Amino acid sequence: MKQFAYFPGCSLEKIALSYNQSTIETTRKMGVELKELEDWNCCGATAYFHVDELLAYTLCARNIAMAEKEHLDLVAPCSACFKNTYFTNRALKEDPDLADHINVALAEDDLHFSGDIEVRHLLEMIVEDIGCEQVKEQVSNPLEGLRVATYYGCQIVRPQKDHENVEDPEFFENLMTAIGADPIPFALKMRCCGGSLLISSREAALDMIFNLLKCAEDSGADVIVTACPLCQINLECYQPQVNQEYGTSFHIPVVYFTQLLGLALGLSNKSLGLGTELIAATPLAQYAT
Amino acid sequence: MSEKVGVYICHCGSNIAGVVDVEGVAEWAGENLENVTVARDYQFMCSSLGQELIEDDIKNEGLTRVVVAACSPHLHEKTFRRACSNAGLNPYLCQMTSIREQVSWVVEDKAAATEKAKAMISGAVRRVQLQEELQPTEVPVNQHTLVVGGGIAGIQAALELADAGYPVYLVEREPSIGGHMAQFDKTFPTLDCAACILTPKMSDVGAHSNITLLTYSEVEEMSGYVGNFDVRIKKKARYVDEEACTGCGICIEKCPKKVVDDVFEVGMGLRKSIYRPFPQAVPNFPVIDTESCTYFERGKCKACEIFCPTKAIDFEQQDTYLDVTVGNVILATGYDLFDVKRMPQYGHGRLANVFTSLEFERMCNASGPTDGKVVLRDGVTEPKSVAIVHCVGSRDENYNTYCSSICCMSALKFGHLVMEKTGAEVHSCYIDIRTTQKGYEEFYNRLLAEGMHFIRGKVAEVTDAARTEEEEGKLIVQVEDTLLGIQRRIPVDMVILMAALEPRADAREVGLKFGISCSMEGWFTERHPKLDPVATMTDGVFIAGVSQGPKDIPATVAQGAAAAARVGGMVSIGMVEIEPVVATIHEEHCSGCRICNTLCPFNAIEFLPDKGVSFINSVLCKGCGTCVAACPAQAISGAHFSNGQILAELEGLLYDVYSGNGTQTAQVESEAIPA
Description:
Chain A is of the alpha/beta class and 289 residues long. Chain A has 12 helices and 8 strands. In chain A, the strands form 2 sheets. In chain A, strands 2-1-3-4 form a 4-stranded parallel sheet. In chain A, strands 6-5-7-8 form a 4-stranded parallel sheet, with helices on both faces. Chain B has 675 residues and is α/β, with parallel strands linked by helices. The longest helix of chain B is centred in the C-terminal third of the chain and has 21 residues, at 553-573. Classes of the chains: A alpha/beta (289), B alpha/beta (675). Chains A and B meet through helix 9 of A and loops of B.
């Protein structure tokens, strides 16, 4: 059985409960054990790195060090948690001097960063470590005919980590194909959802959300599928506001990829947290088991 | 008997004298350095008066060694060696030391620069006393020349040589010569048609009695040295007997199989399985593409054979090999177009009406896939608006940092053609417009007057995700207009991507085959970027055209002619001097381990099985010293770079560390290291 350390992050504790629930259920079903870090902390989100870089690195390094203690690679389902933790891991590996500084702080907690594990996004872990082929073999309830807009958001593949395709990656679509769904061409799949911009500039953020929703609808998507709690919230919760501002009538369900994966693996709606969304995922009803 | 050394220090105007105290150094050298008979400084040593100074001293003072402290030996080593030679001194008894490139141009502090110049002169003085008289060897130059690549560069080079009366082998990989230029429609800035100016030259090549044209052929390997290269050329099977074929084309007409032409028509058009790339192909014999031919696929058909009036089709034909000896080689292998799919944000392949520059060239060409009509991918609809995206894969840290040099002018040409043929609005999104040659800026002004729109900004993406009604069904070009300081979304019907010119995918491999190197990017490296742009570091191998770096047709033609002139000079003299700075193996010390054989970058070392030792072909050796350093038995010595000479130079450089005044001999146990 494959094992990973699991860092759910703050969002999955509250507003993205269904993401957490469906992640745990689907990975278990596929024979992967996620061991939640015992005392994980916030990743620093979008703000902290700009406030105090050293402290922000320390915050992320603490989570990494806990995973190192378990000798397990660390998996994060939230794109922001992933990005911060991934780049902290890389920065500390590349700069032993920085790691030394941070290890002084970690020692207070009886922890140590040595740089011997990798940080993975949940989506990447499923696509790369389990593989679409193996997922396909386990599918008992293919989501045939379901047209999905695969929404990567900005932080899974950017900033560029190595030489991977950051303009037009295809692994998300490949996973959706593996579970029988039909990933439609979604031109804005890599575009930012606005992140926390709604707090500081509502107008600009709504414009970004509007464009995404319009593109998804024009492309003929039944549902938008995401791999990030913030993307999900922005696209789902703000649809009424977009409709009000732009005179539109969007009504597109926005679900987590783990929920679709779970359905295809034959898991129940309830165990996947389906039915708790604000915009009912009615296109999924026909696939309920 | 001790040597008499003359030291000459050049001011190089103020280049050296502005930083180094040249008079002081000359005085110091004359007083302090052992065996220095005369030490002088002079304004320009390389002038004829400067050279005479050296020659007179050799004659009058009886100098036996000369040191010139001036610029890099790359520039003037020949000059000063010749001066010595004129005065009866063996030219290899002259040593240059670079106190310009290595001192005055890089050391800011005047006192430190003067000290460094002293150290370097001291090193040269010690070294030159151990140098030996060397004699260059002469070898004859074979009259034949091999030209690789039948684009406009290779065509020009071959014609120049052939017209001068020298025999040429012109080798081309594709079934016809013509290269990229044959694919183009009009040429900037004059808008004369590419075919009209190219095809006469092509037929000249085909008909010239001094040119052996080998198309559908590739050079397999090359060995030998300047004046005498042995080349093996592979002639790929055409399945058409060139002796019998009249080029009537009935076979092409009768062939039932059509396939997409990915080479000449860049996927825009179809061709038959037996084909010639274009109607004016030279030679005009067709070739069978075995991958798509029904006979080769299923063993049945032979329509071409049945209808051929001269029985020229030969399905049993095999690849053949031709061995030739040539004196010189000109490489004119051209370029590959940047694969625009590496920039998925521009949508080529995903969005139908995004075209590459080469696709658009074919579209404009009257004999091209759309008969010269500018239409969308559906083949009928004329665009009402077109965007041209500059610098696709050029001037971009993620792909190629260099400027591809021709795209701005091509884009202007495209803009003109689009407006002329369709009346559509044309938007050009550029970083900088670069129109640097004769008549180019005038062409830019003409397009400004014709109403082409210019938007200064690098295009972020091309998308079909519409935001507004007027964007529906269009391609939207998202670009920051850096002159207005705003983001713009320009809805258009067609997008043309000005793709970068890239080195051939196999440029490094080809370079290795011919013993020349490539730049970081993969362009062939010239001997000197300004003063020797078509020669390479390998004597007898020349380069021309875009394989050396991005350039337009006039520059390519000029290089083809220049390379031919260089070769013509060598062939007409008929003899070439080979530099005597080479390595030699002392057979009595050689254990035959063969370590050196594979290390030699010039393939100059072979193993003599009967003697059990390695042997260096002095004509091939460039004197790089790799083998000298690698030999575990120290059985190899490098002329002009012996251990003794190098240690003496080091001692000289470190004169102040050893003695403080530079007059004592350093106590180095040089006896322990064989010379």
